[in-house]
Amino acid sequence: MILKATISQIIHAQRLNLEHKDIGLKRDTLPLLPDLASHALIVSGIRRCGKSTLLFQLLKSKYPAALYLNFEDPRLYEFENNDFSRLDEVIKEQKFTVLMFDEIQIIPEWERYVRQKLDEGYKIVVTGSNASLLSRELGTKLTGRHITKELFPFSYHEFISFQKLKASADSLLTYLNVGGFPEYLKQGSDEILNHLFEDILIRDIAVRYNIKDVRTLQRLAQYLISNVGKLISGNKLKNIFEVGATSTVLEYLSHMEYSYLLHFIPKFSYSLKKQIANPRKVYAIDTGLINVNSGSFTEDNGRKFENLIFLHLRRTYKEIYYFSEKGECDFIAFKNGAFNQAIQVCYELNPDNLNRELNGIIEALEFFDVQEGMLITIDQKDKFEKNGKIINVIPAHEFIVNH
């Protein structure tokens, strides 16, 4: 429980902090945010990716008189569900019409409160570091009353803008190494990404889901971030980590995905049952996070490069698969349930891998009856025609900037 006067003081203090805060690089997502009307805007993304900064930018550009309240403020640790009534009094007294709530998902029953304020005619923006903000927890309480947007660490375009670099193979290699977390780019201390990795595992997963075996969760997460681009299955991981049940491993994977730490893409099949049965490929939210936290002693630039291209695609597509029959094609992207493009990723084409890479994507193109596909490399540009299919070889920095 918390006093109304305390809530009012915290709102005032956070507002003063906002006025002295550098709002940072204008995010590419900002112009894409919809105008607030009868729907709540939900912005979800991994911890420390810049959600609060995006909120500041939205506040400054469109809603300068809005209420801003960050529920991760230590002074709000005692805030309970029944304190929303005291918050209501402050809102009415100070005549706010736009409400911006940062990390509100840590308060039980927050969805009911947001629904109530929507019904009362308030405009609302909510941010949180859990993908369940986009699905599970909204349940029936906000059905049809919310618009969702995801925010990721800096894209390559944002990275080169932030670092004042030009799009090139060199700047892309730098991005591959350091990733896109804003604070890490400013300070360059590996401890920032070490602590972030631990924070997500402990605060966003272990505490949130009441996981007792934290050590196994940590070991599993480090194993996965050390093996991006590889196939994983619940049974195999259960045996490696000697976990009692495959269902426990699958729960851990689900939590990691909902916290945005890792992504898992299925093998393409028109059969949902086969998709579930086959191994999935694992990718991390950021290549800098991989470099700092990986337990691998070898530089696997090919896998990290594949991860980078996945992240670019993930910003546009929700439906991404890998294709594997005789050969393999790294990414099949669908939009609105229909095939959109096939993409193969190869750090560097050479005589030893050329046929394998081409055959994998050609097999996918034949399966989907499509004429052209793309093969993304670090800096090579070429064009191949085989079996009536055209493969455009494109340097990654050109592909990302133009697609």
Write the layout of secondary structure elements.
Elements: H1 4-19, E1 40-44, H2 51-61, E2 67-70, H3 84-93, E3 98-102, H4 110-119, E4 123-128, E5 146-150, H5 156-163, H6 169-178, H7 182-187, H8 190-207, H9 214-225, E6 231-232, H10 234-241, H11 246-258, E7 262-265, H12 272-277, E8 280-284, H13 287-293, H14 301-314, E9 319-324, E10 328-335, E11 338-345, H15 354-368, E12 372-377, E13 382-386, E14 389-395, H16 396-402
Parallel strand pairs: 1-4, 1-5, 2-3, 3-4, 11-12, 12-14
Antiparallel strand pairs: 6-8, 7-8, 9-10, 10-11, 13-14
Walkthrough of the structure:
- Residues 203-347 form the DUF4143 domain.
- This is AAA+ ATPase domain-containing protein.
- Residues 39-159 form the AAA domain.
- It holds the Pfam family AAA_14.
- It comes from Pedobacter nyackensis.
- With 403 residues, the protein is α/β, with parallel strands linked by helices.
- It has 3 domains: 4-150, Rossmann fold (3-Layer(aba) Sandwich); 156-301, Orthogonal Bundle (Arc Repressor Mutant, subunit A), CATH 1.10.10; 316-403, no CATH class.
- Helices cover 42% and strands 19% of the residues.
- The protein is built from 16 helices and 14 strands.
- It has helices spanning 4-19, 51-61, 84-93, 110-119, 156-163, 169-178, 182-187, 190-207, 214-225, 234-241, 246-258, 272-277, 287-293, 301-314, 354-368, 396-402; strands at residues 40-44, 67-70, 98-102, 123-128, 146-150, 231-232, 262-265, 280-284, 319-324, 328-335, 338-345, 372-377, 382-386, 389-395.
- A 6-stranded mixed beta sheet has the order 9-10-11-12-14-13. Strands 2-3-4-1-5 form a 5-stranded parallel beta sheet, with helices on both faces.
- α15 links the parallel β11 (338-345) and β12 (372-377).
- α8 crosses α13.
- The protein is globular and about 70 Å long.
- 37% of the residues are buried.
